[in-house]
Specification:
The complex is a heterodimer of chains A (146) and B (459). In chain A, 40% of the residues lie in helices and 14% in strands. With 146 residues, chain A is α/β, with parallel strands linked by helices. Classes of the chains: A alpha/beta (146), B alpha+beta (459). Chain B: It is found in: Cell membrane.
């Protein structure tokens, strides 16, 4: 899945810069589409106006976002046939158990805490992209639409 | 009957008296003729007298019997009357139409009436209509039952309405038809008032508990929201600090001199430290907030697992670490793991300068508690984590469990002084005790107990 774009749903500009840098540092060549709020995400993923929807390799989603929380967005993504099986990785600062539990209950594929130490974050991004972009085999699109 | 027996006695007395008089007259006169005349008369009179006397004696016997029976009956009635008159219960009997047949003295005193005045009256002659109606309804209810009926009744008295617990039952004639109802009422006003008092106090208490609970829930929610915000919002800027100082070091290293790079490292390290501090604070808050789930906990397994993790993370250290077999207690596994993790990490850290570091986890008998004690297999009792590290000065022991208090300079041993506060918090929530013994340069021992009894959360 090195050709499909990575969707980063994040509103903190510092976090956006640091995350983009981490992907670049780890040699991830995928296009990274950054969306800063949930409304934008829904428009791109589930367009109502007939434009072709974005089909990302993975969605990296923060929980605290303007307009819709990451958990609300997750619920919307999972309840639509077109996006039911797209891998969603919660990438958040929260270590609260309730966020972890709610994420999995709503169908998140993974829950990753952003560490404070940047070198640690670099390792996290490396592992994460290696797994989700290379190792993980996605469901064939004939059976579960991309 | 009484009059008839009197007449018999009078007649016998008369006959005997006449006979004696005739005899006496003959004797006094001394006249044979008179005696001759007199003797047949005396004999006749005497015979008649004897006859009457014998008959009278038979009557007298029956009479005595009747008197005895009557006395007995009267004594019986008297005894029963004494019983019903000398009880604190109010006793009364009314016929099927509600007219009084009988009341006891308690009734007379209570309502200020005399029993002879009551005969023929009904409750409607004595009480206000609603009260009388209620009594009558209860009478009718009791009359419809074969067995005694228990009910609560209210009766007006000079000092207010009294509550009675009343037993009512029908009185039946020989054919089994009820002709009256008997009631026995016991004043339970005091009990009622006490009950009312208890109920009121309970209600007040419940109300207060509810209020406090609401307050407590609000403050817990606040704390929760605060912790949540700390968890998320305070860490984000730290990531920025750490991330960009790292980026600067990587991308602009050539344009900075040694001092400039050192400053950047300090910024990154400080942000990292604060991140750790926030994690510890959250753990402390979680140790207080997390719901306590009491289950059997295998402390030996927990300690061994943590020891393994410590060795893996620090493979160059040589530490003789022993964990006693069979350490177990009832408690919250996740929270007790925090206790062992903090105590073992401390022991690990403070023995780092020992050539041969030693850490022992075990249990000893609890001497201070009678029931504590228990078994040599280490189940319950006092658990300990002991090391031969740098130890501490017991003069500062009271500061050990206070958040952010440190007994060693940060330059020697890292840490922010929250670990033992977490430990103390968890132990307190298990109704346990924690204390420490130490000697500078010779090691430290931390002891804790866990209350085995399931009960309310100690927080």
């Amino acid at each position: 899945m090195r050709d499909a774009p990575i969707l980063l749903v994040e509103d903190n500009p510092d976090d956006i810069t640091l995350t983009l840098r981490a992907f670049a540092k780890n040699g991830v060549g995928n296009e990274i589409v950054v969306l800063t709020d949930g409304e934008l995400l829904l428009t791109r993923l589930l367009p109502a106006d007939g434009t072709s929807p974005l089909r990302p390799a993975i969605i990296l989603m923060d929980i605290h976002l303007p307009k819709f929380s990451g958990l609300e967005l997750l619920q919307r993504i999972r309840s639509d046939e077109r996006t039911r099986y797209v891998p969603v990785i919660m990438l958040t600062t929260s270590t609260e158990e309730r966020d972890v539990v709610a994420s999995y209950q709503l169908g998140a594929n993974s829950f990753v805490c952003k560490p404070v130490a940047y070198d640690e974050f670099l390792r996290t991004v490396r592992t994460l992209s290696a797994y989700w972009l290379d190792i993980n085999k996605r469901c064939p699109s004939s059976e579960c639409p991309p | 009957m009484m009059g008839a027996s009197h007449r018999v006695v009078a007649m016998v007395t008369l006959v005997v008296t006449v006979a004696i008089a005739v005899l006496a007259a003959g004797l006094v006169i001394g006249d044979a003729a008179a005696l001759g005349l007199g003797l047949p008369a005396v004999a006749v009179l005497g015979g008649a007298g004897l006859l009457i006397a014998r008959t009278a004696a038979r009557d007298e016997h029956a009479l005595a019997h009747a008197r005895a029976v009557e006395r007995e009956a009267r004594a019986d009635a008297d005894r029963l009357l004494k019983v019903i008159d000398n009880t604190s219960a109010v006793i009364y009997m009314r016929d099927v139409r509600g007219r009084y047949l009988l009341v006891n003295r308690q009734y007379e005193q209570l309502f200020g009436v005399r029993r002879e005045d009551l005969v023929g009256l009904t409750d409607h002659d004595l009480f206000a209509k609603p009260v009388a109606d209620a009594f009558r309804a209860n009478d009718l209810k009791a009359l419809a039952q074969e067995t005694p009926t228990v009910m609560e009744e209210a009766a007006p008295q000079p000092d207010g309405t009294h509550t009675y617990i009343t037993v009512k039952y029908p009185i039946t004639d020989v054919d089994g038809h009820p002709y009256a109802v008997c009631g026995i009422s016991t004043d339970i006003t005091d009990r009622k008032r006490a009950e009312e008092q208890v109920r009121r106090l309970n209600a007040e208490l419940e109300h207060r508990v509810r209020e406090r609970t609401v307050e407590l829930e609000a403050s817990t929610r606040e704390l929760d929201a605060f912790a949540y915000s700390v968890s998320h919002d305070l860490r984000a800027p730290l990531r920025t600090l750490n991330g960009f100082s790292e980026a600067l070091l990587e991308d602009y290293s050539a344009r900075l001199d040694q001092t400039g790079r050192d400053y950047l490292r300090r910024i990154g390290a400080a942000a990292d430290r604060m991140g750790g501090l926030i994690d510890d604070l959250l753990n402390l808050s979680r140790a207080s907030r997390a719901e306590l789930r009491r289950r059997p906990v295998d402390l030996t397994a927990l300690a061994e697992q943590i020891a393994d993790e410590l060795s893996h993370a620090d493979p160059d250290r040589k530490v003789e670490l022993t964990v006693q077999r069979g350490l177990a207690c009832m408690g919250d596994s996740a929270l007790l793991e925090l206790v062992l993790r903090n105590l073992l990490s401390n022991a690990w850290k403070f023995t780092s300068r020992r050539a041969t570091a030693r850490i022992d986890v075990g249990a000893v008998r609890d001497r201070s508690a009678d029931d504590g004690a228990v078994s040599d297999d280490g189940a319950s009792g006092v658990f300990y984590v002991r090391d031969n590290g740098v130890g501490f000065d017991e003069a500062y022991a009271h500061k050990l469990f206070v958040p952010f208090q440190r007994l060693h300079p940060a330059i020697d041993f890292s840490g922010n002084g929250v670990g033992l506060a977490i430990v103390a918090r968890v132990v307190a929530r298990h109704h346990g005790r924690i204390w420490a013994e130490g000697t500078p340069g010779q090691g430290a021992a931390f002891y804790f107990t866990v209350d085995a009894r399931p009960g309310t959360d100690g927080s």
